[in-house]
Task: inverse folding
């Protein structure tokens, strides 16, 4: 994988209607023209849900929907942010005093995460001010990573405005860390694919060290994204962070039972690595060591041989202090089985057997069942949408993104695509009880798009 930095493309704005329109809006807003434009794509995760923060590889692809920002570096040390969507309010702040409000995940706070991450990485004492106008085509809170795309785009913008360079891998790692300023304990998939994506290929993304491998998707099928229209903002909910903590606690209990240094172990992947066993063997260990009933904080303390005070101060994060029970068996079981499905998915894509589509579809179905039953990150609307997609010809379908709302991704035979879209539209979006706006990017076929880059007017 090239350790290059995101490319800067000279473009003729007349041939890019969206950029041209953004430029005109920028001029009417700020009274001067932008100097450059930065773009970061959203993503769809084909398989590998909720395992990146456990240290396991995931298999996403970038989509065509993106965040686009027009930028003019300015002499004053102020960042002025505006959005082409008038429901997102203007915001301005001094670049020397970045305050990120965790209690309100508003759009400008995600921009500030990317800005702060780059500033801190370079120790910029005198950062450049900027006027920025943002345009987004990723449906918000849909599990297609609109928030991470905004963090990545802001990081790229800040880098360029301050005349600095970084490789795509470094940028992805900085943006992963900096999104945590808003309180989300994410694992790095979204930021990595946003920078490392290449047109025409999905990517197997592995962590520690971060690397991306091309995964050629089989011909004869198209991936379709369908939005359940249930919004889920993972920073605004505790569900996501509770799952991260449950995985961490499962790591500690599994490590302790196997005589490992459990205090140092943070991720389920670490246990497998230290024991030197396969994912299948890890699933057997989960069955032996953990019980399906929820664990109380008292029982966790007893298993680890520590006091409640130590659990609260050393292991549980600040926002977990009031949670009294944790499901460890189910979460560990999902993570180890999902990690195995990702590797199997990649293997089928590279070997391309005659029945590849059926095999991949089966893995997607298993993934959804595990997300629904073991990780409990689905919701009735997502389950209904998956059922509808399978009923109308999808070979595989599953929730994608954090879950609890957002989108499904389905693999559909290309020759049945039009009929599939028509039927799903009718069955989910145009039923009597639920007339949802389908024209608003809620149902669309997609192919692997390219990663983040900068445009300059030619």
Result:
């Amino acid at each position: 994988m090239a350790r290059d930095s995101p490319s800067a493309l000279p473009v003729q704005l007349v041939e890019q209607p969206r950029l041209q329109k953004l430029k005109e809006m920028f001029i009417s807003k700020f009274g001067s023209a932008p100097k450059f434009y930065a773009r970061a794509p959203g993503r769809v995760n084909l398989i590998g849900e909720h395992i990146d923060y456990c240290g396991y590889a995931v298999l996403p692809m970038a989509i065509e929907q993106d965040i686009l920002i027009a930028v003019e570096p300015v002499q004053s040390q102020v960042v002025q942010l505006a959005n082409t969507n008038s429901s997102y309010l203007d915001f301005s702040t001094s670049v020397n005093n970045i305050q990120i409000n965790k209690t309100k995940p508003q759009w400008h706070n995600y921009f500030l995460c990317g800005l702060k991450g780059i500033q801190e990485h370079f120790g910029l004492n005198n950062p450049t001010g900027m006027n920025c106008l943002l345009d987004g085509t990723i449906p918000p809170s849909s599990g297609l990573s609109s928030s991470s795309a905004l963090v990545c785009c802001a990081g790229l913008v800040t880098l360029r405005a301050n005349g600095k360079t970084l490789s795509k891998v470094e940028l992805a790692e900085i943006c992963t860390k900096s999104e945590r300023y808003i309180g989300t304990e994410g694992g790095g998939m979204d930021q990595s694919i946003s920078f490392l994506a290449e047109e025409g290929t999905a990517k197997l993304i592995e962590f520690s060290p971060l690397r991306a491998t091309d995964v050629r998707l089989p011909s004869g099928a198209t991936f379709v994204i369908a939005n359940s229209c249930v919004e889920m903002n993972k920073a605004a909910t505790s569900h996501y962070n509770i799952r991260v903590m449950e995985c961490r606690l499962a790591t500690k209990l599994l490590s302790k039972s196997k005589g490992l240094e459990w205090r140092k172990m943070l991720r389920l992947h670490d246990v497998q690595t230290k024991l030197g066993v396969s994912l299948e063997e890890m699933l057997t260990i989960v069955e032996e060591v953990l019980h399906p009933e929820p664990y109380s904080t008292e029982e966790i303390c007893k298993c680890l041989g520590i006091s409640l005070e130590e659990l609260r101060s050393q292991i549980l994060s600040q926002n977990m202090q009031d949670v009294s029970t944790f499901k460890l068996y189910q979460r560990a079981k999902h993570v180890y089985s999902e990690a195995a499905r990702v590797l199997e998915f990649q293997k089928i894509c590279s070997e391309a057997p005659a029945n590849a589509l059926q095999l991949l579809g089966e893995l997607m179905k298993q993934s959804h069942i595990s997300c629904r039953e073991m990780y409990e990150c689905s919701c009735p609307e997502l389950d209904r949408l998956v059922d509808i997609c399978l009923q109308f010809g999808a070979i595989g379908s599953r929730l994608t993104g954090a879950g609890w709302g957002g989108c499904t991704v389905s693999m559909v035979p290309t020759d049945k695509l039009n009929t599939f879209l028509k039927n799903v539209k009718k069955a989910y979006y145009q039923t009597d009880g639920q007339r949802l706006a389908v024209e608003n990017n809620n149902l669309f076929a997609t192919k692997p798009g390219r990663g983040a880059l900068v445009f300059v007017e030619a």
